[in-house]
Design a protein that fits this description.
Order of helices and strands: HEEEEEEEEEHEEEEEEEEEEE
Structural class: mainly beta
Largest sheet: 16 strands, antiparallel, barrel
Helix content: under 10%
Shape: globular
Strand order of the largest sheet: 3-4-5-6-7-8-9-10-11-14-15-16-17-18-19-20
């Protein structure tokens, strides 16, 4: 623990030293590589489509983002009051080690230091634009949000329910794979495929008393060994047209349970699979952005478990964000005021009860209006109101929640 804390302090010291000198140096030795991260590229490009600070010919570039907000929630007329939340502090380190060899890492601190995660740390070896080998800790390319999750990119404070409760974001695993892109006129085709470690038995053996991929990702040993002894497979294909937008199809599947140990068969192989569809487009000269994602989960449940644990889950979200004002404001040349709304739904247990043939509940839907001010493409001030209805397993009258949030998120 002492060594880990020392490493963190050292990294923070380097970042602070670099940023301070970058602001004070007038020789141009320090350079900031800005990237308007609201511009639409393939979601697979999100890892490198970030602003970085470089130091002359120093081989390592540094970046990151910070987000925080206020939080006031009322559940069925009852509230616990007002809170401040320090959501995330994330550091990026990037390096071009040699020609066609790149390294990138992402270290995230959530809720202060309650959670510290290495979300990405991988080497890319480019043999051809269509054949790039990636190895290390990678983000599984299931859906779009898992890779394209940085707070400053979004006008909504909370991550979509489907990206937290159905397919957990950020889902990272150690492994390797290949990816590539091919360009034809206004079209670009991209693919990714990886073999990684996967989930564990917490998918069904957890305190939530329901099937949960989010619980299955909490395995502290998943960066050193596979619980099932078998790799998890993830693949995605995406196509983008500069005028029409992007469409992505992805699939992820793997055995999650410990089905054998020391050559002794303990159980049959039980798998968890995810199918995902994502899309995004901009209309009316980029005045209206539409983003959506839908995921379907299939889980092999042990026969001894009851229907509290669903073998099918699904969820999705749709974001509509309209730029109401775009002009120089308060000294910022390209400031924007956006109004948006998010519609989202998750079903933790699709199907009917075997005994009564009645519909199983256990689902949530939410609507989130948003007002956001962007002084620049890498920084956002945002005001959200979340209206949520949660229905339990038996379909009783839903729990109704209202959450008012104001906060910011910015790359640095």
């Amino acid at each position: 623990m002492y060594k880990f804390k020392t490493t963190i302090i050292f990294v923070l010291a380097i970042c602070l030293f670099t940023v301070v000198h970058a602001q004070s140096d007038s020789s141009g030795f320090f350079q900031r590589k800005w990237s308007d991260t609201t511009d639409k590229k393939l979601n697979m490009d999100a890892v490198y489509n970030r602003p970085f600070l470089t130091l002359g010919k120093f081989p390592v570039a540094i970046g990151g983002y910070l987000e925080a907000n206020t939080h006031y929630e009322v559940v069925d007329g009852v509230t616990n009051g007002f809170s401040f939340q320090a959501r995330r502090f994330t550091l990026f380190l990037s390096s071009s080690i040699a020609h066609k060899i790149r390294f990138f890492s992402e270290l995230e601190f959530e809720n202060g230091t309650k959670e510290i995660n290495i979300e990405f740390a991988a080497l890319d070896f480019e043999f051809h634009p269509l054949l790039i080998l990636r190895s290390g800790i990678v983000m599984n390319p299931i859906g779009a949000y898992n890779q394209n999750h940085d707070g400053p990119r979004w006008d909504f404070i909370e991550r979509p329910l489907v990206a937290t409760d159905i397919v957990p974001t950020t889902l990272s695993n150690v492994g390797f794979g290949v990816y590539g892109k091919y360009y034809v006129n206004k079209w670009v085709l991209g693919y990714e495929t990886y073999l990684t470690n996967g989930f564990d038995d917490r998918i069904v053996s957890n305190t939530l008393n329901r099937s949960s991929l989010s619980e299955g990702k909490i395995n502290p040993e998943r960066f050193s060994m596979s619980n099932s002894g078998l790799p998890m497979f993830t693949a995605k294909m995406a196509v983008r047209n500069r005028s029409l937008g992007e469409l992505g199809l992805s699939f992820m599947s793997g055995v999650y349970n410990k089905w054998q140990e020391d050559g002794l068969r303990l159980d049959q192989k039980r798998s968890a699979s995810v199918f995902a569809l994502d899309f995004n487009t901009s209309l009316f000269r980029k005045k209206l952005d539409i983003t959506g994602e839908f995921s379907k989960v299939l889980i092999s449940i042990p026969e001894t478990y009851d229907q509290t644990f669903g073998d099918q889950q699904a969820g999705g979200f749709l974001d509509l964000v309209c730029t109401m004002v775009e002009k120089p404001m308060l000294g910022w040349e390209k400031a924007k005021i956006n109004f948006g709304v998010r519609l989202e739904y998750v079903d933790f247990n699709q199907g009917k009860f075997k005994e009564t043939n009645g519909n199983i509940g256990d689902h949530v839907w939410a609507m989130v209006p948003s007002l956001a001010f962007r002084p620049m493409g890498t920084t956002v001030l945002r005001l959200n109101y979340r209206f949520i209805q949660e229905t339990d397993l038996l379909g009783n009258p839903p729990i109704v929640s209202g959450v008012l949030q104001f906060g910011f998120s910015s790359y640095f």
